[in-house]
Design a protein that fits this description.
Shape: globular
Structural class: alpha+beta
CATH class of the largest domain: Mainly Alpha
Strand content: 5-15%
CATH topology of the largest domain: Serine Threonine Protein Phosphatase 5, Tetratricopeptide repeat
Helix content: 40-55%
Number of domains: 4
Number of helices: 22
Distance between the termini: 25 Å
CATH architecture of the largest domain: Alpha Horseshoe
């Protein structure tokens, strides 16, 4: 069940080393944590330069006998490594070590176009792990001149800012360390450093609890820095870009001043134009936003980088949010002339027609089906990469099967609206098992069940509603209804069948808890009545903490599971800490999912940031000593089963 970032024999032709490089760029790197003469971990090359085709490798040696090693007598040693950042696809590696004659253990990791690596080692036979006291080991890759890549430096800094590289690989959040890493590598005169400057300001801004407005001292620091470095291209570019992207949190004057300065100092800068666009995009009223974006396009008709991006935004607003099909068609026709090979514009216009039909608009659904065919033809020819840089209906990646499933979902909806039940069943049946967007898969199974009911295919409909019930408690009653209709003797028997299906799904995932041991950050949460919950106040309790938000669909889908966990395990302290959500919004979701208003816990941006970069939901098991022991990034399809497995792995026998 998926869940929505040393001695080497190396050919010189593949990886180059330069004798003039500093010690930090030497051929091998001895990591801290033991005496310099006897490091527990050694890697070659210390600064990998990965360019061009061919076999390229990273070699990592672990020395159990040396003072810094935590695993003294390994039996089955494994390397757990993640490349680049948590958002990179195919970045996770598990590599077996081989024991060497000198008592060390060696792992060889093939390299591709990587910029950064972070790792730890574990003994699969005993469960021991060595993660360098929670700091892990890491490596920034280099360019052809031996200089560390800015992208890798940024990934390293994000790790200290709390990025979750995988469920078993996450550093304690240390914003000051992240800021120091960026600052040490910035060349303010080099435009190539502008992104590091940008990230440095982001991390400084993240330190505060209220991210709605910047504190006066940060505004002053930015204004003073711009006055001091007025001609430094990298500094000005990165600072102006930060202010423009976060303009809602700052007074207008310094943002406008920085944008104008960037347009004077930075070659090819269009920061003033970007600021106007950002302000238009931040308007909450969809009609006003569409109008402001139209005015921006009229003012910048030849804008190459963001022009089609904005046109696509307007197509989404008119088609999906406002249901104004005439205006949507105008946007679509304009885009079709400019980006005729992009699959997503055809899929987006088709979905607008189908949504419009559902709310009573006069729509020719055959036209929507023709557009979906054109989208699939483009998908097969050029893939799903967006020419506009903005994806609405399809996925932006290279997963053709997933995008084809999305097109089939919309075909199924169109045929269902035409009451062509067999065609609708065909396309929805092909779509639902493939979709990994949980809400869209749920919707597909519900529509599939409906088409099967129309054809009196009661057993098939029951199975479709079972799949829906596995994804959302809101579908359980429909599953029970069809179960009774097809001969299930009672509601209790239907619920037993549902529980069995949940167990089969969980067993099929072969979930094995990945244990960590990180001190929980020093946080403060607030209850609905104003009470405070702190890290220290939870000492001596086993805590299940979920960071979520009412606007997050996958988060809401977990709530009924947490209600079941509460019922099954009252000995646990359950904290459902909501971000950017109001008490009435939380109460509504809690009522619908079997939770009490007494369970409401609020977390501000600053305290949420202590748990790291990334989205929601994030779920943690915190032991009685205040240490994070398991991490889950993304929605859990079966909250109770996952949490019980975690507790068992921690030696905490779950009670029923």
């Amino acid at each position: 069940m998926g869940r929505l970032f040393v001695v080497l024999g190396i050919s010189i032709a593949l990886v180059l080393f330069f004798p003039s490089q500093a010690d930090a760029q030497a051929d091998s790197k001895a990591f801290p944590g033991s005496e310099a003469s006897e490091p527990a971990m050694v890697v070659i090359p210390a600064c990998p330069i990965v360019s061009g085709p061919g076999k390229q490798e990273l070699e990592i040696d672990y020395y159990p006998s040396r003072p810094g090693a935590a695993i003294k007598d390994p039996r089955l040693l494994t390397l757990r490594l993640v490349f680049d950042n948590p958002y990179t696809t195919d970045n996770d590696r598990t590599v077996a070590f081989e024991r060497q004659n000198n008592g060390s253990w060696r792992a060889i990791v093939p390299l591709r176009w990587h910029k950064y690596a972070i790792w730890y080692v574990r003994d699969d036979s005993t469960g021991q792990r060595d993660d360098n006291n929670g700091q892990y080991w890491d490596l920034v890759f280099c360019d052809g001149s031996g200089k560390r890549l800015n992208e890798g430096i940024r990934d390293q800094a994000e790790g200290y800012a709390g990025a979750i590289f995988s469920d078993d690989l996450k550093r304690p959040t240390d914003d000051e360390r992240a800021i120091a890493i960026l600052a040490a590598n910035i060349d303010i005169a080099d435009d190539g450093s502008s992104r590091l400057v940008y990230e440095e300001w982001v991390f400084k801004f993240r330190r505060q609890s209220d991210r709605k407005s910047a504190p006066p001292e940060l505004v002053q620091e930015i204004e003073s820095g711009l006055a001091l470095h007025v001609g430094a291209v990298g500094y000005v570019h990165g600072t102006a870009e930060f202010l423009v992207n976060w303009e809602q949190a700052f007074p207008p004057a310094p943002v406008e001043k920085a944008a104008a300065l960037a347009d004077r100092v930075v070659p090819h800068s269009r920061m003033v134009s970007d600021l106007e666009r950002e302000r238009a995009e931040h308007l909450k009223d969809p009609q006003g936003r569409a109008q402001a974006l139209g005015e921006w396009l009229a003012k910048h008709p030849d804008e190459l980088f963001y022009g089609n991006y904005v046109r696509k935004e307007r197509l989404e607003i008119f088609g999906d949010l406002l249901g104004d099909l005439g205006a949507a068609e105008d946007c679509f026709q304009d885009l079709a002339k400019r980006t005729p090979h992009e699959a997503d514009i055809y899929a987006t216009m088709a979905s607008a027609y189908i949504r419009g039909f559902a709310i009573g608009r006069r729509v020719n659904l055959d036209q929507a089906l023709t557009l979906l065919d054109r989208a699939e033809a483009n998908l097969e020819a050029v893939g799903s990469q967006s020419e506009t840089g903005y994806i609405v209906t399809l996925y932006g990646g290279e997963d053709i099967a997933q995008n084809r499933a999305i097109l089939n979902f919309w075909r199924g909806r169109a045929f269902l609206d035409q009451q062509k039940w067999k065609e609708a069943e065909n396309f929805l049946g092909r779509s639902a098992p493939v979709l990994d967007r949980s809400r869209q898969a749920l919707h597909a199974y519900l529509l599939l069940g409906r088409t099967q009911e129309q054809q009196q295919e009661w057993e098939k409909a029951k199975n479709s509603y079972l799949e829906a019930a596995l994804r959302s408690p809101g579908s359980i009653e429909k599953f029970v209804e069809l179960s009774l209709k097809t001969g299930t003797p009672s509601r209790e028997a239907a619920m037993k069948e549902l529980a069995g299906a949940q167990k089969r799904n969980f067993d099929a995932a072969h979930y094995k808890p990945a244990l960590v041991d990180l001190p929980a950050p020093d946080f403060t949460f607030t209850t609905a009545t104003g009470g405070k919950i702190t890290t220290s106040s939870l000492h001596g309790q086993t805590v299940v903490l979920d960071l979520w938000a009412t606007w997050c669909g996958p988060c809401v889908s977990e709530l009924s599971g947490f209600a079941k966990l509460r019922q099954a395990h009252p000995e646990l302290r359950l904290l459902l800490a909501a971000m950017d959500s109001t008490v009435p919004e939380i109460e509504k979701e809690f009522r619908q999912n079997g939770l009490s208003s007494d369970d409401i816990v609020l977390v501000d941006d600053g305290n949420a940031a202590k748990f790291g970069l990334g989205g929601v939901p994030q779920t943690y098991v915190i032991d009685k000593n205040g240490h994070i022991r398991t991490v889950h990034y993304g929605a859990l399809p079966d909250v109770v089963s996952f949490m019980e497995s975690d507790l068992t792995a921690l030696g905490i026998a779950p009670t029923r």
